[in-house]
Design a protein that fits this description.
alpha+beta
């Protein structure tokens, strides 16, 4: 049985209303729905999974609940508020760059995943080097999580970067400049147990990224 039976439905109902009137006036009138319900439950979920994730990864975990306000400084879309609830747990493994686990509730999705959104330059170099030197191990780990229903984010590059051959066995992965994997959990997702199982399935992927960042 879930410990958070209404977090997903409450969030989607709230953001549907916000989406219909994404204004400061609406937010001020209805912000108690966020401050007194959604935010406390989201923080509770972050806290609930922190210790299990620390045990899983054998490393401290840093949590983050993303702010409701959008940064509109460089965007043509000037609507002031995000219409989703996003949170993440970062594995503090002491690497130059560390991966995260993430969970998001949007208007039409409930998604969980893991990885690094964008590689720092040294990590990108290591990623490509390891794909060349240990292709089978890396593709094996990634194929394993894909068999469990996770999808990798589309590669940033259209072509395999030089000096690698265009028909390289890991060509798809060489075209990436970051690596995340996620899957949709559905509105009936079991929180927190089902979410934690999802993160367990993803741990080999994040462990791979840590080893690459530390190489």
């Amino acid at each position: 049985m879930t410990d958070f039976p209404e977090l997903i439905t409450d969030a989607q109902a709230f953001y549907a209303q916000l989406n219909a009137s994404n204004t400061k006036a609406w937010w001020q009138e209805n912000r108690s729905l966020y401050d007194d319900n959604l935010k406390p439950n989201a923080l509770k979920l972050l806290e609930t999974l922190t210790e299990p994730l620390a045990t899983l990864s054998d490393a401290p975990i840093k949590t983050k609940l993303f702010r409701p306000h959008r940064d509109v400084r460089f965007s043509k879309d000037k609507t002031p508020y995000n219409t989703h609830l996003h949170m993440m747990w970062q594995v503090d493994a002491g690497a130059p760059q560390n991966p995260v686990f993430f969970f998001g509730i949007g208007l039409d999705y409930v998604t969980a995943g893991a990885g690094m959104m964008g590689f720092d330059k040294p990590v990108l170099t290591n990623w490509r080097k390891m794909l060349e030197l240990d292709t089978d191990r890396m593709t094996g780990i990634i194929n394993g999580i894909e068999r469990k229903g996770f999808s990798l984010r589309e590669p940033a590059l259209k072509r395999v970067p030089p000096p690698y051959q265009q028909d390289h066995a890991a060509g798809r992965l060489l075209r990436m400049k970051g690596a995340t994997a996620s899957r949709d959990l559905g509105v009936n997702a079991d929180l927190p147990d089902g979410l934690m199982q999802c993160f367990r399935d993803l741990w080999p992927f994040n462990a791979l990224l840590i080893s690459i960042a530390q190489a």
